Amino acid sequence: MTESTYSFKVGMTCSGCSGAVDRILSKTAGVSKYEISLENQTVVVHSTLSKDEVFEAIKKSGKPVEAL
Amino acid sequence: MTESTYSFKVGMTCSGCSGAVDRILSKTAGVSKYEISLENQTVVVHSTLSKDEVFEAIKKSGKPVEAL
């Protein structure tokens, strides 16, 4: 399956916030790799899912998310 | 429907963490009221849902959750 790379702006204010996003993405089937930057408030995801599907997965965290 | 009150220990380390749990519970159908204490790391939920259902809703945040 083709893999795409998507970037999101995610409101994370401490390592507990970024850790929560980490925990969610690690359990999301179809997500192979991701980088979370607390400093830049960004999450970059490599996935066979659609951008919308990844967006919804991150949104479940309750954090403010915006597609970049 | 009968409403029950459930307590959980939730790992929240900043107001972004508690805000995320707040956002999730505010959107969970069947949850009428809740109190989140960042200081005590607790979430008390009044709901017509089962304790397991509320547990799963909070767990979606990616935060460490424990039923009390």
Q: Summarize the biggest pleated sheet of chain A.
A: 4 strands, antiparallel
Radius of gyration of chain A: 11 Å
**SSE-based structural type of chain A:** alpha+beta
Into how many domains do the coordinates of chain A divide? 1
* Number of separate strands of chain A: 4
So what's the oligomer here? homodimer
Order of helices and strands of chain A: EHEEHE
Write a compact overview of the structure shown.
Chain A has helices at residues 15-26, 51-59, and strands at residues 4-10, 31-37, 42-47, 65-67. Chain A has a four-stranded antiparallel sheet with strand order 2-3-1-4, with helices on one face. Chain A has one domain (4-67): 2-Layer Sandwich (Alpha-Beta Plaits), CATH 3.30.70.100.
Task: Give the topology, please.
The structure is a homodimer of 68-residue chains.
Chain A: E1 4-10, H1 15-26, E2 31-37, E3 42-47, H2 51-59, E4 65-67
Antiparallel strand pairs in A: 1-3, 1-4, 2-3
Structural notes for this entry:
Chains A, B: Keywords: Chaperone, Copper, Copper transport, Ion transport, Metal-binding, Transport. Chains A, B: This is Cytosolic copper metallochaperone. Chains A, B: Residues 3-66 form the HMA domain. Chains A, B: InterPro entries: Copper_transport_ATOX1-like, HMA_dom, HMA_dom_sf. Two copies of one chain form a homodimer. The mean pLDDT of chain A is 96. The termini of chain A are far apart. In chain A, strands 2-3-1-4 form a four-stranded antiparallel sheet, with helices on one face. The first copy, chain A, has two helices and four strands, in the order E-H-E-E-H-E. Helix content of chain A is 31%, strand content 34%. Chain A has a single domain (4-67), classed as Alpha-Beta Plaits (2-Layer Sandwich), CATH 3.30.70. In chain A, strand 2 and strand 3 form a beta hairpin. With 68 residues, chain A is of the alpha+beta class. The first copy, chain A, has helices at residues 15-26, 51-59, and strands spanning 4-10, 31-37, 42-47, 65-67. Chain A binds chain B through residues 11-17, 19-24, 60-63, and chain B through 11-17, 19-24, 60-63.
